Amino acid sequence: MLEGLVRDTSFKWLLGKQSSFDEEIEEMGRSPSAGTNWIPELSPIANVVVRRCSKILGVSANELRDSFKQEAFESLKQPSLFPRNFLEYCCFRALSLSVGVTGHLADKKFRRLTFDMMVVWEVPAVASQALLSVEEDATVSLEAFSRIAPAVPIIADVIICDNLFQMLTSSTGGRLQFSVYDKYLHGLERAIKKMRTQSESSLLSGVRSKREKILEIDGTVTTQPVLEHVGISTWPGRLILTDHSLYFEALKVVSYDTPKRYHLSEDLKQIIKPELTGPWGTRLFDKAVSYQSISLSEPVVMEFPELKGHTRRDYWLTIIQEVLYVHRYINKYKITGLARDEALSKAVLGVMRVQALQELNLTNAMRYENLLPFNLCDQLPGGDLILETLAEMSTSRELHRSNKSKDTGTLHSSASDMVSQLGSVFGGSSPRSRRETSSLVVGEVVVGDVNPLERAVKESRKKYEKVVLAQETINGVKMGGIDTNLAVMKELMLPIMETWNLILSVVYWDDPTKSSVFCLLTTFIIWRGWLVYVFALASLFSAIFMVLTRCFSREKLMIELKVTAPPPMNTMEQLLAVQNGISELEQNIQDANIVLLKFRALLFSLFPQASQKFAIAIVVAATMMAFVPGRYLLSVVFVELFTRYSPPRRASTERLIRRLREWWFSIPAAPVVLLHDKNNKKKKN
């Protein structure tokens, strides 16, 4: 078989269509050790990748196969699953060794190897016969990227892997090309060098610890300043974000002032949100970030001026929130030791990925929060479960490290390992641990299986898809115009209004027979203590109705609400409608304030006679509630209230209501004095 493949590749060479895979297959065929480096169950290009992995590991392909058969579960060695699982085994072992080399992203062979691993992952078996279909412009699917890329934590993360792939393939039809992938890795390499240079510099040397990494700096260019607003004061300066805090250095004549530190690692009830700014306290420009905490007397606003849009602000908002969210995660789950460094590294690597994507100048608008793991967990439904799973996995790894197990398992590469290898400023590389499992774990990916974190992410994404579909329906039913929305609300409230009118007709005894039957039946239910069962039965009927509706309307479309559109209103009519609505709202607020002020007057006995009667009524009610059984008291109250408008009692009820209204109108309201804030006057002056 190998000889036939060599002849095919030689023929391709004559036609000028030979790819890198063809060259290696031809080389393997001519090699004296061809038999030991060829796995018959694998496709030709899979054998090429396995050969590269064997060179990195310093063993032959057959030795790798024997090692896999010894370490893997039987379920992973089934004939139909063996090619892909063995390929993952070889790839992950090679990657776990390759990422230990400082500067591996700069190695062209490493970049090409990781991409070819993804290409081959789709056609691992010999039955694929993919030799003739794989050329230099081969592309990668989402599934292949999601399996291989997270094995190198700096390239991708399990939580944001899908969103990262969508950004990289936004202009290539959902398939990842090597040219885009290579540019992305180049961008990552530059982001690493940038962070290393900034962290090794003398910036914030007086207030920053040695292990505190500088993630981003802004405001150093005069054409793109950063403005800090505190109260009515505004200062231009330089903004620096580390993995623990946010620093602002106000610009002086030739240098910068002492940096102000805004903590992100401590639990200070911080609130970071977008903010509007403008001259003289107006709220016009959506280009700022607000920082609030219990350690500050007033919020601090950082403005990022730019001519068009607010992309710069959005970027800073998300990376600041990412640092805040990772520390909330650490504090919530009490993460310590290497697990804490690993969590911080996950956030740091997320910021570097965003910086690398910014250099690609992608056509689609970038949503930064979808590319940062802790930001995404804050938004996804079930994101708390993802963080909980991540914390459990980190804790188990920490316990495993403390036990110093020497099991003959496989290598593990974590995010903290990645960051520790970016330079000496980040400390030495933590030792890789060996896990007590027969499945290989690199990063957060397991050979031939889905780990708990991947499972939690998939479940969360399924829920998110449902949320997106629901949101599309919500966006579709949003109407413009006050009159149109009122018409929709009126139509929706129609069944409730009809039910309410029916209840009122019973209460006002429009039909004495129906009202009498309802009164006797309800009184009997209350007297017997069956009121709870009535509510339970009503809930049960509602559930049965929904089930029957689902069964008999399964093939039908959703029932649409038909609303008669109101006549169109011109601008003046709309303004008058708004004015009338505001006037009615103001009147309702005034009436509510009067009621509250009258109760205040009763409470403080500003009108002694009314307060005395009110106090006696409260004492009588309290005595009845204390000594009369609940169901008897409820029965008496119901009969009293329900029979007020019955024919025998209607006249006396009207007189009673008139006396109560006269008593209520005679109660004066408590006085109110408006105090004007002197500080506001000073600010205006």
TrEMBL record:
Q: Which residues form the signal peptide?
A: none
Coiled-coil region: none
Which domain of life, per UniProt?
A: Eukaryota
Instruction: Kindly indicate whether the keyword Transmembrane belongs to this entry.
Output: yes
Keywords in alphabetical order: Membrane, Transmembrane, Transmembrane helix
Q: Where are the transmembrane segments?
A: 525-548, 614-634
* Presence of keyword Transmembrane helix: yes
Task: Name it.
Answer: (thale cress) hypothetical protein
Taxonomic source organism: Arabidopsis thaliana (Mouse-ear cress)
